[in-house]
Write a structure and sequence with these properties.
The complex is a heterodimer of chains A (262) and B (318). Chain A is mostly helical. Helix content of chain A is 79%, strand content 0%. Chain A is built from ten helices and no strands. In chain A, 44% of the residues are buried. Chain B is 39% helix and 26% strand. Chain B is built from twelve helices and 14 strands. In chain B, helix 3 crosses helix 4 and helix 9 packs across helix 10. In chain B, 46% of the residues are buried. The chains are: A mainly alpha (262), B alpha/beta (318). Chains A and B meet through helix 1 and helix 4 of A and helix 2, strand 6 and helix 3 of B.
């Protein structure tokens, strides 16, 4: 017998997932355009808001940057999570290479796992780049390194959790344009109807009630507290609960949808 | 020891209201080539997808190496290699990266996957393009790499879905040579095609399917006996001489020629001797020709012979 590939080796699914994540990242290196989305939009918001409104909203651009940056960092992780995951897998799945993966003796969800793991690396890069831009503009962490890392981890973790919603939609829907449309419709209220640009108390009633429900507000509040020392309240708890909840619901749904016969 | 490298019995597959397969049997002995011949939409790809565990049959069973493709899909996947109709490659990655990726997924280990990739690149003459992304490859190179990719795991059974589509004649013969090399090593091949010529060149057995049903199967020789073997087609330079040419054709072959369209005349012949005789007869009758060819029946002609009914496309495209 020439096919001496062993039938059972431990941890095959994570191992194959990592191999496929590396493939996805190698493709990103050759075509870094997909990284740009997660960086450009938040960067534009940062520059625009700080220099246009900073003076009038917070008295000085420096003071406003300290308020705005944590929210924008969360936005970056969120946009990266929403824009890339669902779309990447939707486009990838239609390519013949996925049929080849499915004809190989690997776990059925290994390609899905690979795609999501690679995205996780992309969020980390996105957040690092945003930190660099923020630093150049004058943003300073007012707490300590540990809290800053915790804030980034919360943002990335939430982006990862949010990405499972889009992965589910991306796997479920056939048309990539439909995936794009849903993403853009969801992005605006989800990421902007928050405490990002101004404290919720200053928002009109209808928007305040939405921002209060919106989980992204909790993540932004948590990141702001951890980076600039504002009161934390229960923001961190809410963030962790929402992140865990989204993964618990949408990861199994995505795997189910992915393994369906197409 | 299983008698068949793969065997499918009574495969039925429906997509909504359309029936892609309406009870198809396919099988091949180890080390042989089964050619599945049929037009677009006949169900060839669906049959391959079921055997390659990518689709489940609604009815019927299929085994590869004695393992059921539905219940023992994971075992079947260790035995097969698949090259689909379209490219199954990562266009952004290089050729070696594509092959190493598959090797890693097959748990060959880093060194093992790299060695196997280079071995295949050499065999398929792709070493020179090793540093370029696949998107810059020519159609023929992509096809070779696709075939190489399906061989990384040294599969016992290889499925090739219309492998020669889009290849020019020279490249097609190169592909045929590679398929023959595979079977010489004991690999079993299922190959779908729209060309009797290709099935005749490669296959030990041919199954003809149409509208999801098997309408004929047998060895190429048996099939040609049914569909009439070779034919001569010719076109007189002077349209006025068509009747003269037709007369000469009938005299030599004993059969009245067909007019598939234009001023072309086609008549079945028993072998190339008859063709030369026919050429001489035309020469003597002073009929000059712009075209004169000896060929195997086209798919349309095969269907004409097998079903006794001309397909609509026949008149339209001829």
């Amino acid at each position: 017998m020439s096919a001496t590939v062993s039938t059972h080796r431990p941890a095959a699914l994570p191992r194959h997932g990592l191999v496929l994540a590396r493939r996805s990242l190698a493709k990103t290196l050759r075509n870094p355009g997909s990284l740009v989305n997660g960086v450009i939009t938040p960067a534009i918001f940062l520059v625009l808001f700080v220099y246009l409104f900073g003076g009038s909203v917070a008295g000085s651009t420096d003071a406003y940057l300290q308020y705005l940056f944590p929210g924008v960092m969360v936005m970056g992780a969120g946009i990266a999570g929403m824009l890339s995951s669902g779309l990447t897998i939707n486009i990838d799945m239609k390519k013949g290479v996925y049929d080849r993966f499915r004809s190989l003796p690997i776990g059925r969800s290994a390609p899905l796992l690979g795609s999501v793991l690679a995205d996780l690396v992309r969020y980390v890069i996105t957040v690092l780049i945003l930190f660099a831009i923020g630093f150049l503009m004058g943003f300073r962490v007012e707490t300590d390194a540990g809290s800053a890392i915790a804030a980034s981890a919360l943002a990335i973790g939430f982006g990862f959790a949010l990405s499972w919603v889009m992965v589910f939609l991306g796997v479920l829907m056939r048309d990539e344009n439909a995936v794009m449309a849903v993403t853009f419709i969801a992005i605006l209220p989800l990421l902007l109807g928050t405490s990002m640009a101004a404290p919720v108390e200053t928002l009109p009633d209808w928007l305040r009630s939405w921002a209060g429900i919106n989980p992204v507000t909790h993540v932004m509040d948590a990141a702001r507290a951890l980076l600039t020392g504002t009161p934390v309240g229960d923001a961190v708890t809410w963030t962790l609960a929402w992140s865990a909840g989204l993964v618990a619901v949408f990861a199994p749904l995505s795997v189910w949808a992915f393994n369906r016969e197409r | 020891m299983t008698e068949y490298a793969f065997a499918a019995r009574g495969l039925v597959k429906r997509f909504g209201k359309t029936t892609a397969l309406a009870g198809v049997d396919l099988s091949a002995r180890p080390g042989s080539v089964l050619g599945v011949l049929g037009p677009n939409g006949a169900g060839k790809t669906t049959a391959i997808r079921i055997l390659a565990t990518l689709a489940r049959p609604d009815e019927g069973t299929a085994t590869v190496g004695g393992h059921d493709v539905v219940r023992e899909a994971a075992r079947v996947r260790r035995l097969i290699g698949l090259t689909g109709q379209g490219s199954m490659l990562d266009e952004e990655l290089t050729g070696p990266a594509n092959l190493v990726l598959i090797g890693r997924l097959l748990d060959l280990g880093k060194a093992g996957a790299t060695d196997r990739a280079h071995e295949l690149l050499e065999r398929f003459e792709l070493t020179e393009a090793a540093r370029r992304p696949v998107s810059t490859y020519s159609g023929g190179m992509k096809r070779r790499l696709d075939l190489a990719a399906s061989l990384v795991g040294r599969p016992h059974v290889v499925f090739l879905d219309e492998p020669s589509v889009g290849l020019d004649p020279g490249k097609r013969e190169e592909l045929w040579r590679m398929v023959r090399e595979l079977t010489a090593e004991g690999t079993t091949v299922l190959l779908t095609t729209q060309y009797l010529e290709e099935a005749d060149a490669l296959a030990d057995a041919i199954t003809v399917i149409d509208h999801g049903r098997v309408i004929a199967d047998g060895t190429p020789a048996e099939l040609k006996r049914v569909v009439g073997g070779q034919a001569v087609s010719l076109r007189p330079t002077d349209p006025a001489l068509v009747p003269t040419a037709a007369l000469a054709m009938e005299r030599v072959t004993g059969r009245a020629p067909d007019h598939p369209g234009g001023h072309t005349l086609t008549v079945p012949v028993d072998g190339d001797d008859t063709a030369w005789e026919l050429a001489r007869a035309l020469r003597e009758a002073d009929v000059r020709v712009t075209e004169f060819s000896l060929h195997l029946p086209s798919l349309d002609e095969v269907f004409f012979a097998l079903t006794g009914a001309s397909r609509k496309t026949h008149e339209e495209t001829a």
